[in-house]
Amino acid sequence: MALTLNDAYAGAQQTQYNPQPTGFFLSNQVAATNAGTDVIMNNEMNEDFDSLCTVIANPATTTADVYDAAIWVDGTLVTILQDCDGTQPVDVIVPKGTYLKVIMYNQTGATSNVCQAYVIIRPLQGSSSV
Fold it and tell me: Which residues of 95-122 are buried (b: 16+ CB within 10 A; e: fewer)?
C-alpha cells in the first residue's frame, strides 16, 4: 500500500525542502531471525514529493538478543543500524514514488523475536526528483 500524505497539508506551498506536517508509520510486528529475510516494512513513500523519513527500529519484545536493521531506498542499501534498541534514529531522504524498506536481523543467534520499525514521514515541498 502506498503511503501518501498529499491531503495532510492544506496551507500554501513553502519554499524548496521545507518539511510539511509529518505523517507516521508503524510497521506490523514481524518475527526476525538471522536468516536475513525478515522484512519489517517495504512501502512506497509520497508519489508527488521527496520525503524526509526518520527511521527507528527495535525489537518489540524484551530480549537479550542483538538486532541490526538494514535500511534500503529504492533497492539500494543506505545504512545499517547496529544493536537496535529504539534510541538510534536515522534520517533518510526517499525520492518521490520510491520504496523505503527495513529488514531486521538477529545478530546473536537463530532465535526469532518480534521486531518493528517506526517511521516519521515528512514530504518535502518543491521536490527536485525527476
Answer: bbbbbbbbbbbbeeeeeebebbbbbbbb
